[in-house]
Design a protein that fits this description.
There is one protein chain. The chain has 129 residues and is α+β, with helices and mostly antiparallel strands. The protein has a single domain, classed as RutC-like (60s Ribosomal Protein L30, Chain: A, 2-Layer Sandwich), CATH 3.30.1330.40. Helices cover 25% and strands 30% of the residues. The longest helix is centred in the middle third of the chain and has 18 residues. 28% of the residues are buried.
């Protein structure tokens, strides 16, 4: 598989993402449902704590990717939905290092609410190998 970042500008580098990923020769493509801050029973954990929820959603995304013999580095597109954009920007440094290896194309979207009370973050991803 070959993966090439497409960046007509440099401003996104400070945020650790790319504008697009051009992928050729991939053998597997994984489309992940939105991952949130829940435990193995589906119960919300870290209610109303943006940084902790970002971390747990990434943990859960990592578990899904692992089930397909992939890792965060395989993610080419990541969409993050949050109920508070300002809190997300403040908390993002807590998880930025985990996402640095992926160099995924990313979108951050503010929403009024998520599926369960207390949730502040949901992320879905496309991964390739």
């Amino acid at each position: 598989m070959e993966r090439q970042a497409v960046n007509p500008w440099k401003w996104q580098d400070q945020f650790g993402f790319v504008q697009a990923n051009l992928v050729s020769g991939a053998e597997k493509v994984l489309y992940c449902s939105g991952q949130v801050s829940v435990d193995e029973n589906g119960s919300v954990v870290h209610a109303n704590d943006m940084a902790a929820q970002l971390g747990k959603a990434l943990d859960n995304l990592g578990a899904v990717l692992g089930g397909a013999e992939m890792a965060l580095e395989n993610v080419v597109k990541l969409t993050i939905y949050v109920t508070d954009i300002d809190a997300a920007f403040q908390a993002y440094p807590s998880v930025a290092g985990r996402l640095a290896g992926a160099k995924s194309a990313q979108t951050l979207i503010g929403v009024s609410r998520l599926a369960f009370p207390g949730l502040m973050v949901e992320m879905d991803a496309t991964a390739v190998a």
